[in-house]
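ESCALATION

Customer reports they have been waiting on this structure for their group meeting. Please prioritize. Original submission:
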Amino acid sequence: MDFIKKVFSDKKTEVVVFSSTAIALYGYDQGMMSLINTNFDYLNTMGISKESPLVGIIVSVYYLGCAVGAVLASYLGDVRGRKPSIFVCLAVTALGNLLMFIAGLGFSQGAMTLMFLGRVIMGLGVGGIDAVIPTYSSELNEEGGRGRALAQEFQSNIFGLNMAFAINLGVTNGLGKDNQWGQYPSCA
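Update from on-call: job pushed to the front of the queue and completed.
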């Protein structure tokens, strides 16, 4: 109970908790695509076979977006400030999620294009978040607390990844690979 009181009364702890949450969601997204890319209904919606190299390309364009987003958001954070950069990154991530959701609705024309576009745009936002939030958190912490804050944030990344893997395991064992749950990546 004392920890909860401390979180809401200490600005630095609050920043670490919320930045850890953002980084955990980054790990969650990394892990969730493993379920989605093996879901037969999703593959049918996208019009690709389970052995198609497009499955790997869908994953890799996200990481390309992450790399570019990290560089752009770092520059934006230096020029305009960390808070505006974080806001822009979150808005870009939401737009990418929206495009992936629309792609998952099953339109035969353009679903794959929307998925690629959504993955790249989401990657731009998530890469930016991953670059700016740890920097912002470090700037707000005192010299002795920076390492601990960064360690907590990246432990949260692994927690998010493990959470996605656990959900993947449960859904795959419970529903199988022929279910519509995997059709909507942004809802997952």
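Sent to customer with the following note: The chain has seven helices and no strands.
Escalation resolved.
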